[in-house]
Amino acid sequence: MKNRRATAVSALLLTALLSSGCAQTVSPYPSLQPRAIERRSDTEPTEAAAAAATPDVALETLLAAKAKTLADTDSAFAPAADSAERAAKAARGGAVGSDRWIAAQTALAKLDAFRATTSALVTDLDELAIGRARDAKPPYPALDSLKGRGDAQLTAEINRIAEIQALLPAA
Question: Where is the signal peptide (predicted)?
Answer without folding.
Answer: 1-25
